[in-house]
From TrEMBL:
Keyword tags: Antioxidant, Disulfide bond, Oxidoreductase, Peroxidase, Redox-active center
Protein's organism: Nocardioides mesophilus
Protein name (Swiss-Prot/TrEMBL): thioredoxin-dependent peroxiredoxin
Description of how the protein assembles with itself and partners: Monomer.
CDD domains: PRX_BCP
Length: 161
């Protein structure tokens, strides 16, 4: 279990492109969103307390994020059918994407060894990456907290709370 930590993205890096299936079954490709700023956040599991709080916080902020030129993509290993239930159950308006083989999470440094209740385990590392209009990383935050993260991110981006 002594694998190296996943390579994390840093400011200025080219964001790895991806195409993933959304909760509505459509294919979403990152490079198709060039010209817009994109917040890509990675979370462990739909319909768990922390992930629900974070998704609801992003949904509550979505109108003002859109007004500031940001798209929001939430990525988890959940299948699209579970993501659709998550959207329905919690009235989510953000785009939810399925990464069942975790290949995008690995490419973005959001899957690997982490500490969970004092044990080292392999899993999703709750992370948020902001991709600029040109496809480069503007913000890369790893091991973020589910609660209060969106407010902190808005502050970091210079957006009114």
């Amino acid at each position: 279990m002594n694998e190296p930590a996943p390579a994390r993205l840093a400011v200025g890096d080219e964001a790895p492109d991806f195409t993933l299936t959304s909760d509505t079954g459509e294919q979403v490709t990152l490079s198709a969103l060039r010209g817009r700023k994109v917040i890509v956040y990675f979370y462990p599991a739909a319909m768990t307390p922390g992930c629900t709080k974070q998704a609801c916080d992003f949904t509550d902020s979505l109108d003002s994020l859109h007004a500031s030129g940001y798209e929001v993509l939430g990525v988890s290993p959940d299948k699209p059918e579970k993501l659709a239930k998550f959207r329905e159950r919690d009235g989510l308006t953000i785009t939810l994407l399925s990464d069942p083989d975790k290949s995008v999470m690995r490419a973005w440094g959001a899957f690997g060894q982490k500490s969970l209740y004092g044990k080292v385990v392999e899993g999703v590392i709750r992370s948020t990456v902001v991709v600029g209009e040109d496809g480069t990383v503007e913000v890369a935050q790893y091991n973020v907290k589910a609660t209060g993260h969106v407010a902190k991110l808005r502050k970091d981006l210079g957006l009114a709370s």
